[in-house]
Amino acid sequence: MKLNIERLTRDELIDLYGRISAALDACESRQIARKAKEEAARIKGEAGESGKRVSYFNPTNRSVSWNGRGRCPHWFKVAMAQGRTPEELAAL
């Protein structure tokens, strides 16, 4: 869109200036939000890698696993009672 600003009245120029300022502010806000989102994702990614939880596998059925959160499954308790260690179940 081509606009001949030389032909606009003072009031039209003031209105145009206000709309341009608002558009620039909105653009800057979007850029700041995008950068903040990228930074948060980067930080979360770094923290997420170091805080990964181990999955423990059922020694009799490897397709059954437990991530260590929530209630301890029966097969895990049985394996512990049989003398297995959590590290052994994680390494299966």
From TrEMBL:
Residues 56-90 form the DNA-binding protein H-NS-like C-terminal domain. This is DNA-binding protein H-NS. The keyword DNA-binding applies. GO terms for molecular function: DNA binding. It comes from Cereibacter azotoformans. Keywords: DNA-binding. InterPro entries: H-NS_C_dom, H-NS_C_dom_sf. Pfam families: Histone_HNS.
